[in-house]
Amino acid sequence: MTLPTLSAHAPSAPPQLTALASRILANCLDIVSLWSIGHDPDDDAMAAERVHALLAFADKATLQRLRRSEDLHDLDIEFLVVIDGDLFESAWGPSRLSGSLARWAWRRISADEAFYDESRWAAGGGVVRTRRKALLVWQSVTPN
Q1: How do residues 59-117 score in pLDDT, each as one tens digit?
Q2: Distances 57 to 27, 33, 126, 144 between C-alpha atoms, Å
């Protein structure tokens, strides 16, 4: 069996990301694409910063398989799965997150880059929106 090859960003990716992505993709063949999210929009590389979150495009069955596959879990990394092209849920990680790419204003601007708005509660009770960048780690050659 040939293991999936990572995107052009992968060689500069932290070894932790490369190893985790390879293990996940070898065990979950229904993943359509895998993104590293939460990057500063002004930074071109992901190597300088530790990866805190990954976003996979897949389906509900893959999300459930990932939740059961505890040997893949890295509890320091938030792993989100988009289950229907818009809605996402946590497979594992420090928080239990769910949401919508539409509410994040997710926009893919090139083959390997996307931008979105992250919302967080501010200390005073308001919401702060921060522009973030996502970098493609891997994409299926033939989408499911």
Answers
A1: 999 999 999 999 999 888 899 999 999 999 999 998 889 999 999 999 999 999 999 99
A2: 15, 5, 30, 10
The domain locations on the chain are 10-139
Report how far residue 26's alpha carbon sits from residue 34's, in angstroms, rounded to the nearest whole number.
13
- Looking up tokens 């990057």 gives 39
Q: Is the dihedral angle over the CA atoms 80, 82, 86, 88 positive or is it negative?
A: negative
Per the listing, tokens 């932790």 go with 16
37: Cβ–Cβ under 8 A, 6 or more apart, which residues?
53, 54, 55, 80, 116, 132, 134
Residues 70-91: b if buried by 16+ CB within 10 A, e if exposed: eebebeebbbbbbbeeeebbbb
Structure tokens at 35: 């993104």
Cα torsion 86, 41, 142, 11: sign: negative
Instruction: Give the separation between CA 65 and CA 138, rounded to whole angstroms.
Output: 19
